[in-house]
Amino acid sequence: MMLKIILNKENIARFIFLAAAYVAVACVILICVFLFTQGVPPIAKIGLGDFLFGEKWKPSQNLYGILPMTLASIYTTVGAIVIGAPIGILTATFLSYFCPQWLYKVLKPMVNLMAGIPSIVYGFFGMAVLVPFVSYTFGGNGKALLTASILLGVMILPTIISVSESAIRSAQKSYYEGAVALGASHEISVFKVILPAAKSGIISSVILGIGRAIGETMAVVMVAGNQAIIPTDITRGARTLTSNIVIEMAEATDLHRAALIGTAVVLFVLVLIINLLFSVIKTRRKHV
Amino acid sequence: MSKSVILRSLVYLATGLTFFSLIGIVLYVLIGGIPYLSPELFSWNYNSENVSLMPSLVNTFLTVILSLVISVPIGILAAVFLIEYADLGVAAKSKIVRCFVSVIRIAADTLAGIPSIVYGLFGMLIFVTFFHWGYSLLAGGLTMAIMTLPVIQRTTEEALISVPMNYREGAFALGAGKLRTVTHVVLPTAIPGILSGVILAIGRVVGETAALIFTAGTVAQIPTSVFDSSRTLSVHMYNLSVEGLHTHEAMATGVVLLIVVVIINWLSELVANKIRPVK
Amino acid sequence: MENLTQENKNIRINIEDLNVYYGQKKALNAINMEIKENEITAFIGPSGCGKSTLLKCLNRMNDLVPDFNMSGKITLDGEDINKKYNINDLRKKVGMVFQKPNPFEMSIYDNIAFGPRVTGIKNKDELDKIVEESLKAASIWNDVKDNLKKSALALSGGQQQRLCIARAIAVKPEVLLMDEPTSALDPISTEAIERLCEELKEKYTIVIVTHNMQQAKRIADKTAFFYIGELVEFGETHDIFKNPKEKATHRYVKGKFG
């Protein structure tokens, strides 16, 4: 009898749903275990300070400082957000509040297409079109931080657009109607009432965008120049953390290989910090 | 100029830029690649002469299917738990439940933020090395499954949230249990939203390069078992472009990639329209 | 004579000393009332008075609210609804129609067949029969009989609400709860629903929450007036509107507040 109560359909279903929800937790734990057990020892061996703040990455001389790469990753990501976030959010606003129905039917599939275009294709385009463009406009050989930022800014657009759009659409339409009823123009109502109401969704779209930008590898490798030196100028080349791994992993052995796994650990921690920062901001906003 | 006019112009400008870049990229690849779409590029077997993309195309489909077979059900079930059972459940106010739920959400957010190259290294460390599977379809597929899980989970959550509360009340009021309400009323209503997550996930697998190089490897043959290395289309394009000898073929591969993406998007749109009732 | 027959009607629902809390807030205070079969009982009162809360207690919809708490006893045919009934069985017996029409995103047919399918009916002919009967009972059969496969969302608001009534009837309930069923509808649809209520009361016990006093006057046999969580007065609709005993009732029905 007891068993029958425990084993009824509802409870079994609830258990399956619960178990599925914990798969994500299990994956995170697995990833942590594997990365940290193999990535932390080499960092300890090199010395945390020398690894994180070392300004020279020269595996041939046993110098494993990743500061140049860390800075390059941060700079390109910030650049990408500066370019991509406003454009993406505004485009999402257009799609949800300014776009006639017939045009939406054309544009929405285009956004989906944009999300589906492989990064390697973006990289190819960047190499063949953006690099010469930047070189022509700003001088240098065009393989630069700026180029990577522009390309990443474009690449994160579909993420920001679709997540923001659904957030904007799920904001209460009655708020908008209330604002219009008070005599506010269509534009003011959308920007002052709807967008703030959709804030948390828009923020998570930007988080996703940051995640994509900082984690992007192939497209960046193709346009950033990849010099492992501290970036001083946005028109000069730089090598991001991701590029560092993909460029050298194939030939690396021993400590060099371990140092690259260490690089992945740093990247991982960086992403964790970003996530944490944003969830703190998000929960604080909710409480206010 | 009034504030409204400025805001409107900004919105139009941003939209213009977005679609201008998209059209630019697509046209560039099409114009550059279409002239080089030769029949040899589609030979069943790859060799360094014909640099056929056919095996990679097949491998791409295999990888997509393998990964989604795992991540789609798990992601949907997990989202159902988070929204229908945890957020809307009777115990939603209990501190312990909230705590467990936030752990799950943080985990999913973390997964979503992990860069693909880190997935690549992780997949290599666990599947390729630790399990001794070597560079293989299975290692690649599983890595992609973990990578796409948060995409599915999050979009499904969003889709479930957008199902009106009174649908659930209506079902409960008819004497339907939680499970039936979820499976017969809430999930069907959420399908278009869930599908958009699946599209995103497929796009991520098709477009993935970094994570697959280190897990599925770069052998351009159709695998005979899940333990064979399998190069996907994106990896193929990457290999061709870094070798530098086959830039035109790389562009042609880009065209095929674009076509694959268009077909995927078109199919899901079709399915979404089929399922969504005619209004 | 007429009075006598009314007194002979059976008591279906009995509410004893009902207190309801949402967290710390008390929503209903010491409610006692009897609801009889084949009558329309209307709950009236200003918003926030607890009338909808009480209605939702009757089919335990409040169980969905996380910090809901109640004390006291509600019985249906003498059995405690919180103890003797499985929650889903209770809801099959006590159907509900909501303020806003809420047809599911399915065909008209599937909307009606949803409830019977929950009870395990799979036979196509049987389902067809139930669908037809229910739609007829809700006076919407003639509007939709030719396109049962069409999405329910394509119907007009008034049709949607009648569909929802049909959907509730399809489970063969004994009691029908209606939570301001016409507040989202136009006058013509409202009239149709009111007429429908009069017909349905022959077979069902109906409890209707309404903010529209004229509606209560038109269709209800009994009326209960609620104010800030208290049942102020309960009696024949005629008495409540013509000779209210309480001052608050008088002021409310005369439109002095609310």
Largest sheet of chain B: none
Shape by Cα distribution of chain C: globular
- Assign an overall shape of chain B: globular
Largest β sheet strand count, sense and barrel closure of chain C: 6 strands, mixed
CATH topology of chain C: Rossmann fold
Broad structural category of chain C: alpha/beta
Most extensive interface: A-B, 87 and 93 residues
Contiguous runs where pLDDT drops below 50 for at least 5 residues of chain C: 1-5
CATH superfamily of chain B: MetI-like
Distance between the termini of chain B: 41 Å
Q: What's the number of helices of chain C?
A: 11
What does this structure look like?
The complex is a heterotrimer of chains A (about 290), B (about 280) and C (about 260). Chain A has a domain at about 70-250: MetI-like (MetI-like fold). Helices cover about 80% and strands about 0% of the residues of chain A. Chain A contains 14 helices and 2 strands, in the order H-H-H-E-E-H-H-H-H-H-H-H-H-H-H-H. Chain A has helices at about 1-5, 10-45, 50-55, 65-100, 100-115, 120-140, 145-155, 155-170, 175-180, 185-195, 200-215, 220-225, 240-250, 255-285, and strands spanning about 55-60, 65. In chain A, strands 1-2 form a two-stranded antiparallel sheet. In chain A, strand 1 (about 55-60) and strand 2 (about 65) form a beta hairpin. In chain A, helix 4 (about 65-100) runs parallel beside helix 7 (about 145-155), helix 4 (about 65-100) packs antiparallel against helix 11 and helix 5 crosses helix 8. The relative contact order of chain A is 0.14. The mean pLDDT of chain A is about 90. Chain B is mainly alpha-helical and about 280 residues long. Helix content of chain B is about 75%, strand content about 0%. Chain B has helices spanning about 5-35, 55-85, 95-115, 115-130, 135-160, 165-175, 180-205, 210-215, 235-245, 245-275. The model of chain B has no long low-confidence stretch (mean pLDDT about 90). Chain C has about 260 residues and is of the alpha/beta class. The longest helix of chain C has 14 residues, at about 125-135. Mean pLDDT of chain C is about 90; it is low at about 1-5. The interface between A and B is large, with 87 and 93 residues.
